[in-house]
Amino acid sequence: VFTTAAEAKTYVAQHAFPLVIKADGLAAGKGVVIAANQAEAESTIDAMLSGRRHGAAGERIVIEEFLAGDELSCIAIVDGERYLLCEGSRDHKALEDGDQGPNTGGMGAFSPTHLWNETRRRTIATTVIEPTIAGLARDERRFSGFLYAGLMIVNGNPYVLEYNVRMGDPEAQALLIRLQSDLAEVLLSAATGNLQSTALQWDPRAACCVVMAAPGYPGPVTTGTPIQGLDAAAQIADCVVFHAGTASNDGQLVTAGGRVVGVTALGEDLRIAQASAYEAVGMIDWPGVQHRTDIGMKELC
Ligand code: GLY
């Protein structure tokens, strides 16, 4: 953990690349850089610690080992003591196809995933989720709500990359469209410390969510651009267009943020869900819109 550039640069000079450099504060999911070499590491350290890149959130940075593996999102609903696990889901954090380009808050997600089998679910429950809930309670930070563990599966073993205390976006879209249990009832039980042990019920079909983002994202974006085709996309069966950064301007829907909509579809299998989601994506448009064309391919290839 570093607060001065000189110490951070000395550290990276002594370690093998790639290295992961993180702003310690809140950076809207964009505070992580995987530095491939010394030059990239040094410019990232300077940009973060000077406050240029993330303001006060970058005044302290964390440098970590790079883990190569498969990312998996595990989301638990916790009532302070008991918990229910959501099905596994997978995000696509890089802006461009093939996991290229800058890191974003998430450009698409799918659920379920073969990474979430019964053995791994038990391992994650007992080695990650349960110790975390117990540790929070021991520290007198008894937690109820969504506990999100962002995991990297390396050689079959889960490593925690990050925790969030929210559902995760766009994993939420891929999960909520599959959730058959009454979400309000479950959340009320969690909030009142009364979670029942009945497992959550899930639609067995697959869900695929494709994020459509404004030009410039994950950097500064132009907003206020009219969005075309939302009504046509809404006609596609088992497809929901979740609004993230939209606004109504005299009755016309316009862009109002970086990630604008999360186009999400259900299908008998992931390939069908993916095809429906991309059919809807093809109907929605605005100048400079960005989206990945390979959401779900991690599972399908
Ligand atoms: N999709 C990752 C997150 O919401 O942080």
Secondary structure elements and their pairing?
Layout: H1 5-13, E1 19-23, E2 32-35, H2 38-49, E3 61-65, E4 70-79, E5 83-85, E6 90-91, E7 94-96, E8 100-103, E9 108-111, H3 118-138, E10 144-154, E11 157-164, H4 171-176, H5 183-191, E12 206-213, H6 230-234, E13 239-243, E14 246-249, E15 252-255, E16 259-267, H7 270-281, H8 297-300
Antiparallel strand pairs: 1-2, 1-3, 4-5, 4-10, 6-9, 7-8, 9-12, 10-11, 12-16, 13-16, 14-15
The protein binds glycine (GLY).
Instruction: List the secondary-structure elements in sequence, H or E.
Output: HEEHEEEEEEEHEEHHEHEEEEHH
Helix fraction, binned, reads: 25-40%
Which strand order does the major sheet show?
A: 6-9-12-16-13
Number of helices: 8
Strand-residue proportion: 25-35%
Rounded mean pLDDT score? 95
Ends: how far apart?
38 Å
Shape: globular
Q: Which regions are unreliable across 5 or more consecutive residues at pLDDT < 50?
A: none
Q: Using DSSP, what is the number of strands?
A: 16
Structural class comes to alpha+beta
Largest sheet: 5 strands, antiparallel
Q: Give the C-alpha Rg.
A: 20 Å
Task: Tell me which ligands are bound.
Answer: glycine
